[in-house]
């Protein structure tokens, strides 16, 4: 006997996804360059510009993440954030083995964990959205 399809709430997962998304954007664009500037003599403006350029593909998905109702766009956003997750993990390991300061390594580790949560919430949201073939 088949169980009936039960629609689970989307709103709480979407709220958590938006919170993690903005946390990651602020962390990557502002906090990471500031921490680099405090530990080295690097220019913070150049760091912010480089981070914005590096995050441009992800920033293009910000409106879709804020709406959270288009499965097609969210699937592409999930693919892009999986790439960022891989890069963040590799950079965290590289910074650890380079022996850089604990602050820089910790920032990369926090970025990896936030991206892990973003991908988790995207996966849950995509499972809870109505099937793509049944949308009007």
- Main pleated sheet: none
The count of helical stretches stands at 6
- Alpha-carbon Rg, integer: 17 Å
Q: Are there runs of 5+ residues with pLDDT below 50, and where?
A: none
Order of helices and strands: HHHHHH
Beta-strand percent range: under 5%
* Proportion of residues in helical segments: over 70%
| Overall geometric form | elongated
> Averaged pLDDT, please?
88
Helix/strand structural class: mainly alpha
- Work out the number of β strands: 0
Q: How many angstroms does the end-to-end distance come to?
A: 29 Å
Report on this structure.
Helices cover 77% and strands 0% of the residues. The longest helix is centred in the N-terminal third of the chain and has 29 residues. The relative contact order is 0.16. Helix 1 runs antiparallel to helix 2. It has 136 residues and is an all-alpha fold.
């Amino acid at each position: 006997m088949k169980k009936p399809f039960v629609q689970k709430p989307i709103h709480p997962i979407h709220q958590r996804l938006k919170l993690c998304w903005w946390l990651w954007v602020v962390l990557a664009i502002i906090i990471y360059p500031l921490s680099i500037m405090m530990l080295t003599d690097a220019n913070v403006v150049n760091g912010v510009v480089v981070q914005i350029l590096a995050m441009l593909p992800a920033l293009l998905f910000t409106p879709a993440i804020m709406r959270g109702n288009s499965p097609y766009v969210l699937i592409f956003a999930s693919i892009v954030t999986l790439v960022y997750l891989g890069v963040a993990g590799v950079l965290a390991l590289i910074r650890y083995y380079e022996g850089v300061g604990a602050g820089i390594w910790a920032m990369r580790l926090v970025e990896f964990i936030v991206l892990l949560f973003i991908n988790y919430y995207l996966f849950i949201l995509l499972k809870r959205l109505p099937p793509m073939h049944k949308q009007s």
